[in-house]
Amino acid sequence: MSTSPSTVARLRLELSLVEPVVRAAAARMWRSDAGLPGRYRRYLCAMHQVIRASVPLMERAAARCEALPHDPVAPPLARYLRAHAEEERGHDDWLLTDAAASGTAPGELTDAAAPAHVAALVGAQYYWIEHSHPVALLGYIAVLEGNAPAPGLAGRLARETGLSPAAFETVRLHAELDDGHSADLDLLIGRLPLDAGQRSLVAVSALHTVAALAELFDRIAATAPTPIGERP
């Protein structure tokens, strides 16, 4: 028995009501002004801190599924997570390459301690995976892949920042890839035999991710512009 397609429709409806908050924060972050190059470099650092956790999160969630042999949700969820982890593997390295092309030493990304708001975005998933059910991670994935960079953003940022187009490969690639990933996720959610508690957990995870992602973008957007003459 699979979940009704209405489960997917309900989740997408709930997200449609709150995702304008993320889009508005992203628009503020990508506004065209003298601070844009600096904000982009800070975005690379923040997204590296988020994306380097993606594969470990999926692998941990899959391992938890594999420890639940009598749960009908667990086997198909584990298969999806293992496959998706392979699709996402190495994407954090893309950001290091982009950082180098933007004039930022990769060590500035890898050595930076993640601030509390990044830990809150990612860390809630570890809690739910360990103490509730690994299906929570689907809400997180739905939001991140449902708010991929817009097509054309990479080109606009290259023009407006004056940075090399090579500094925007992750933005460009995620704009191309994540629509297909979202469709695959919707098909999975539609097939999983989720009970009411699991459906609620996916929704709670998604709504938390919306709020935390909007906060991350707003913190980048609120950073004061660098004075003229200094590196942005």
TrEMBL record:
Pfam families with a match to the protein in the record: Haem_oxygenas_2
InterPro entries xref list: Haem_Oase-like_multi-hlx
SUPFAM superfamilies hit by this protein: Heme oxygenase-like (SSF48613)
SMART domains: Haem_oxygenase_2 (SM01236)
Highest taxon of source: Bacteria
UniProt protein name: Iron-containing redox enzyme family protein
Organism: Streptomyces bobili
